[in-house]
Design goal:
242 residues, 8 helices, alpha+beta, Alpha-Beta Plaits, single chain
Length: 242
């Protein structure tokens, strides 16, 4: 029987697909593969929620980002085994990889465990049009696992609630178990547009509780956050998470 922690906290697979613009048209080929083959496979096997995004503003563009949620590590392993047994999916993978020109440059995959303070992914409400929300993927690096865990405790006990109150809408918060830039925590939030983002962060900066906790001994950025990076994402038209 899986441990209770595996049952209650989801695991997230973040996949970064590095592309380049050329006559081979990698962005179009990978996007079509995700829409025609990857998404149907996740629907057949019950994987998800899932999301498919293109980098709107961030380093190393063009780049695509995919997100898949699993209920536990056992669930992830079971779904991976099911993928290998899905003949339609395996045939599509074989054909995609057999092309004369590389479909992408490189892939990087991160595995994250959901925070105790937000153990499940939250889907944004459906908006008007297929790409109605702007997403912000943010990573907070730390000098040590201890520091990263302390920042996670800060989010779990105080900061996620402040985010919600200020209009910074969470999709997920996760501790990175495998990936790069470790140790780190990574989260995804959404807004209606860039103006809504600016308004939300301005409100956050003036929030009384945020002003209180940001100077609490042991919780200042100088003590527990060594670097912050963020990438703006736009969902692809077929993305269930949008």
């Amino acid at each position: 029987m899986p441990a209770e922690s595996e049952v209650s906290n989801q695991y997230y697979e973040l996949r970064f697909v590095q592309l380049h613009n050329s006559k081979a048209n990698q962005p179009r080929r990978v996007t079509e593969f995700l829409e025609k083959h990857h998404l149907p496979m996740t629907q057949r096997l019950g994987i998800g929620p899932v999301g498919y995004f293109q980098v709107y503003l961030g380093p190393d563009s063009p780049k695509l980002v995919t997100l898949a949620a699993y209920n536990s590590l056992a669930d992830l392993e079971s779904k991976r085994a099911a993928m290998r047994g899905d003949k339609e999916w395996m045939r599509a993978v074989e054909e995609f990889g057999a092309a004369d020109q590389a479909p992408y440059d490189r892939q990087e995959v991160w595995l994250l465990r959901a925070f105790d303070g937000m153990p499940k992914l939250e889907m944004p409400p459906s908006g008007e049009g297929p790409t109605s929300h702007l997403f912000d993927l943010r990573t907070y690096e730390a000098e040590s696992e201890r520091d990263s865990d302390e920042k996670i405790r800060m989010f779990d006990t105080e900061e996620i609630k402040i985010f919600r109150r200020c209009g910074i809408h969470p999709v997920f918060f996760g501790k990175t178990l495998f990936g790069s830039k470790m140790p780190n925590l990574t989260y995804l939030v959404w807004y209606n547009d860039l103006d809504a983002r600016a308004a939300a962060w301005a409100k956050f900066g003036e929030d009384a509780d945020w002003k209180r906790i940001r100077v609490q001994p042991g919780w200042s950025d100088a003590e527990i956050v060594s670097n912050v990076s963020n990438t703006f994402l736009r969902p692809l038209p077929f993305s269930p998470l949008r």
